[in-house]
Write a structure and sequence with these properties.
Two copies of one chain form a homodimer. The first copy, chain A, has ten helices and no strands. Chain A is elongated, with a radius of gyration of 22 Å. The first copy, chain A, is mainly alpha-helical and 204 residues long. Chain A has two domains: 43 residues, Orthogonal Bundle (Arc Repressor Mutant, subunit A), CATH 1.10.10; 132 residues, Tetracycline Repressor, domain 2 (Orthogonal Bundle). In chain A, helix 1 packs across helix 2 and helix 2 crosses helix 3. At the A-B interface, helix 6, helix 7, helix 8 and helix 9 of A face helix 6, helix 7, helix 8 and helix 9 of B. The first copy, chain A, binds a DNA duplex (30 and 30 nucleotides) through helix 3.
DNA sequence: GATCGATGTGTACATCCGTTCTTATCGGAG
DNA sequence: CTCCGATAAGAACGGATGTACACATCGATC
């Protein structure tokens, strides 16, 4: 349609040019849209608007919506893996370990983004083989980090427990008290009920 | 299915009429579509096709897509609540209780539907207040059932653990062995590590 | 049996979406 | 400096979707 702003010969094209890193910016924008509107609401146009680029730019950098989704999730896993890893960097005692886990569950506004994206990925992976391998790799990686502190078998249990706790914390009106969360996690970290032999064998 | 009702007339209209219970059939069809194609793929036409009714019938019985979604989820919670309740009907011993939980986690093709719908609801509830109250009510109800066997505080823990285990069982390539699942659940059911005093106080 | 509301059925339409295509412009290789 | 590939930008198109609507038909009520 005719824009009322251009009388004659007025090229309204954006002057924007030479935007390196635009590709990853689009991916981050896609993740933003994903958090806000869900997988159903993640469209080319929404992502383009969020990244402040024209529609054609999104379709140029990514072959299709499926590829955009896959690469966005891949970027999420990559970033999340690193962040999760670094969470446990200076951990020396069992109490510090537990404290990190408690913080993980207690959904801060910052953590909410990661949690939502994680569940969005899990659900999408149920119907998409490519995303499924991504989700599995992510799970393995997370459990490997936990396994450094509690052992391989307990790491699986702990991972599953954390997943459930985070989900419930996300949508519960009033989240559980820190003490309750801590008590539950402590129990899961030291399942033997006897002294921490199991744990100590892995460094704590 | 063209019935020979009108010999010469070429009225292609469906002869179908007087279909009580069509409304709930549409809701069940909506849940089927939801499981198969996700929230994004649940459209008026998909649901209509699944329920074998014309498009107009769906828009007649439900004011909009949002109402259809909400009522479908409501029906799911209603049915799931009853099913979950009846799962624990004749439970007399702690071992029976644990066995039911292990079956719950080990995703049979039949349980997969419920699990997928549950997670779909949880994710949708993150962005829809109406669905959020529904999800919260469902969680409360489930925990109330569990609480009859393990007490209120432990029921919350157990519910969260089950949620995580079910999710992982859904998308893990090779699910965990029944023994591993059983061991984890047993530990969660009897968290005290000392005799089953806590449990016994609630009937087992 | 006539009437009327409830329900069933098909169609039209505006909107949005994914994708393709054309054109413009920058940056770097030669 | 020249040229060309890579990238940016906007337009266009076919298809799908939600919704509104117009018409048909059954069943209950009198």
């Amino acid at each position: 349609m005719t824009l009322p702003g251009s009388p004659a010969g007025d090229t309204r094209r954006r002057p924007r040019r030479h935007d390196p890193g635009r590709r990853t910016r689009i991916l981050d924008a896609a993740l933003d849209v994903l958090v806000e509107h869900g997988l159903a609401g993640m469209t080319h146009r929404q992502v383009a608007a969020r990244a402040d680029v024209p529609l054609g730019s999104v379709t140029y950098h990514f072959a299709g919506l499926a590829e955009l989704r896959a690469q966005a999730f891949a970027r999420f896993v990559e970033l999340q893996d690193a962040a999760f890893e670094s969470l446990f960097d200076g951990i020396g005692t069992r109490d510090e370990f537990v404290a990190v886990l408690v913080d993980l569950v207690h959904a801060s506004p910052a953590r909410r983004r990661s949690a939502v994206l994680g569940f969005e990925l899990h659900l999408a992976a149920l119907r998409n083989p490519e995303l499924r391998v991504l989700a599995e790799a992510w799970t393995r990686s997370s459990q490997a980090v936990l396994a450094r502190f509690v052992g391989a078998e307990a790491a699986v249990d702990l991972d599953e427990l954390l997943e459930g706790m985070i989900m419930h914390a996300l949508l519960a009106a009033g989240p559980r008290s820190r003490e309750a969360v801590r008590a539950t996690i402590e129990r899961a970290v030291e399942p033997a009920g006897r002294g921490g032999g199991h744990v100590r064998a892995h460094g704590l």
